[in-house]
Amino acid sequence: MTRRRRTRPALLASLAASAALVTGCSSGSGSGDPLDGGRTGAGAQTDASASASDRPFEVEEVDAFDEPWAMTFLPGSGDLLVTERDGVLHLRDQESDERVEVTGVPEVVDAGQGGLGDVVAGPSYAEDGTVYLSWVEAGTAGTSGAVVGRARLVTDGQPRLDGLEVIWRQDPKVDGDGHFSHRIAVDPEGRHLFVSSGDRQLGAPAQDTTNTLGSIVRLDLDGDPAPGNPLADQGGRSAEIWSWGHRNPLGLEFAPDGTLWSSEMGPQGGDELNLVEAGGNYGWPEASNGSDYGGGDIPDHEDGDGFVAPVAWWDPSISPGSLMLYDGELFPDWRGDAFLGALSGEALVRVDLDGRRAGSIQAWDLGERIRAVEQAPDGSVWLLEDAGAGRLLRLTPTDG
């Protein structure tokens, strides 16, 4: 399948904070600047004060990749793994700035929103090199689905994945090539894997807990249902599920306080930042602060509707493709805050979090679709652009 490629810009566009926080719980008009629609129910706090010269960070371009999707910094060395959707895994040496392709990567279905997806270091990486990856594999009769695999990353000589095995499969495999989600997070105790599983653009399966579409699953490190899951007594796929009623949760991250958060693409408007709770039903497709494509109405989240409402949402959409919860030292004012990479919004979005509540929302226009955001070991913030020559960017505090 041929994808439309975006050209690499000559210069990074000027950055400006342009997000506004609006009082109330209504979904809004669905029109206007996509960066002007950040909303919570915590009260009005608008931050539109920062011009390009006032931004709190400098931007350094350090590399470029072909349609990158995810990155992770490896414990110990601090070296960087970067996935590309067509099935390439890069290992980048952070001291020499050299990178090499890792061999042993699985065959992937590189169509639509598919391909090679997330990569994270396992909790035992320092001892045995275990990493977890997600990708899309083919099924029968043209179907496909996301999977999670486990392997040992060997870095002596030619980097390679040894002993790669699939430990979890999205179920069922269906037609189409969208809403795989397949983001991976390891809990702070290092005992469980959490995997986001999109609704595959079908909607209704997100309310059916006998399958894993439209859910976030909680697994042990071998990919089996984790003991203590909310639907464990039902067996089957239900036993894997931690929460459901999700559409396309492309961000999944633990905060420094141990809470689990997700960023989720809504329909036309209604993108969400969610605090993920065990047994929570997040409403899709029965409730959303957005609208169906084509103008169809979806009931807004309301008190008492039986669904978990988002902590923050956006209408118009920003299309959040990733999520990071900051706990570094370089940006002390950012500690504990959520950062979303906006695809259609072409921005880095910051949500000021106070425990389980959202305060002000701020966005910096980057002029390119932001696919991934990660914190480096030194506390700098790294971004991947979503493009045929997607740049790898490093953000550090502005001097003075």
Automatic annotation (TrEMBL):
What organism is recorded for this protein? Nocardioides scoriae
Name used for this protein in its record: Glucose/arabinose dehydrogenase, beta-propeller fold
Pfam name, any one: GSDH
Q: Which domain of life is it from?
A: Bacteria
Q: Which residues cross the membrane?
A: none
Q: What is the lineage of its organism?
A: Bacteria, Bacillati, Actinomycetota, Actinomycetes, Propionibacteriales
Domain Glucose/Sorbosone dehydrogenase: start-end pairs: 65-394
State the UniProt keywords alphabetically: Signal
Signal sequence region: 1-19
What InterPro entries does this protein map onto?
6-blade_b-propeller_TolB-like, Glc/Sorbosone_DH, Quinoprot_gluc/sorb_DH_b-prop
Instruction: Give me the ranges of the annotated region Disordered.
Output: 24-56
Checking Gene3D superfamilies in the record gives: TolB, C-terminal domain
